[in-house]
Amino acid sequence: MESNVANSTESFSNAHEPEDLNLGEIIRVVLTHAKLIFYVTAGFVVLALLYALFWPKTYEAITTVKVPDISQTSLGLLREIAPNTGSGDPLQTYVQIGRSQNVAGRAASILKSENYSEYNGLSPQGLVNTLLGAVVITDVMKSNLLSITARSNNPQLAADLANAWAQSFIDVNLDLSHKGATSKREFLESQVAQVKQRLDNPDLRLDEESKADEVTYNVLLQQLQQARLDENVDASGIVVVDTALKPERPISPKKTRSVMLALFLGLIAGIQLAFLLERVRDRIKQEDQLRRVTGLPNYAVVPDFREDYPESLNPPAPGERFTPKVLINNPVFQYAFYRESFKVLRTNLTYAQADKPIKALAVLSPGPEEGKTLVNANLAVTLAQSGKRVLLVDADLRKSSIRKVFGLENGVETGLPMALTGQKPWHEMIRPSGVEFLDLLPNTVTPPNPAELLGSSVMKRLIEEFKESYDYVVFDGAPVLPVTDSVVLSTFLDGVVLMARFESTRSSEVSKALEHLKHVGANVVGSVLNCVTVRKGLYGYEYRYGYGKYKYGYGGEENHPKTETTNVAGSSEKKP
Asked: What pTM, to 2 d.p., does this model score?
């Protein structure tokens, strides 16, 4: 017993390790939230279509110009005069000139004369800023070519803007060339004057410098003559290679590309939202997930019984088809996966402890409406079918359900409270279940102090008496989290199985319930996942459950909706 508790405690300490995101988990989440992902993706695609159909079209026109080598430009002239004027990239200098407000202002003047309505109402500076945002200047493969790209909602305006920009670019550079040539001329004139002054006045120079000054003077005269010629040349050295033509097709919006991108982004967003919902909802959805949360072996996966109910085997009337009395020992399930899951649970419990067999046990759930009563009832039936004498005890003293499961009448007062308070011997209150080797101790009494009764020494002694008379004693207790009844009861049992309902019980609830049981030293040997959808062997991919949880406490049946009845998988079925 101590070794099992130690092992379980060690397992519980490792139960909260982060879950690995594997391919199976991704597929499960995607298929579980397939509709959500579809709607999100469809929303993205619809937005993309609206954008493609109604967003203003944008046209692009390109003009290509060739700029001269640096040695042929005013920049070259300045470097020739003053070599230390800078070492920047000449091509990038042209690019920056092309992006200047000077060029944009000249282009605006050209376009304004064309009377484009797009620019009506703009101030001069506003027009310049608008044009600067519509034009992009780039160098072509680091060559002496520049690309002037203009965009507009008007295809003709795009072409005219690119061409106007090219012309303005040439004009600005021509002005710069003239200014550079003028600066060179003025500089050379001053140098010529200084040298000539030295040559004309022997007192200002030494004899050995005479020949050098004469050579310098002649060179400066030649350069001055060339500068005067350059100053009068009406060319910047920039030529248009390709003139922009009116574009036939818009560059945006691109319908196919927009829809494909929206499809991709929609899928990504939908999947991300699905995983976010999974984390927010925090429901138990897989056997592996339950195993990770508890750190315990999973003893059985109990499917949703409705998947195993054949339509051709003369089912009972619709009003009785899914009632507990019909389902608890229905031959329809004799070879079904539903019934087999309890045989698996029986086998795992039989071999759970080698040193000490588990005779007094209970399947407990964290909260109400998770199906633990029907699981305990089916487990008791399955144990009895193996030829063992079994007693099913109703230990849920707040909302007793065993009598309803087996269709028993209330009759006289009976149950654990009567035996624990000495009002009646327990063996006089035993009722037949209708299943061979299975007896029932139902309860019809709601005591004011159930936790105190179940945690008393009388209860411990009573359990020993049960075990002397039966091979197995199965207790159907109250949920763990709302009340402490089952927590104190678990200390007297040989083993406890913690159950979670598929897509209903939260991981945090399972962890909290397990913590409560471990605090009192309960021997929690394993877990069970109940009411699972197993279609196509991939449970969790299709489910249609959305039942709420009701307040758990005194009041019996009045806490349940009157139109519902609990079924064998622990779900709620509305009567027609």
From this structure: 0.58
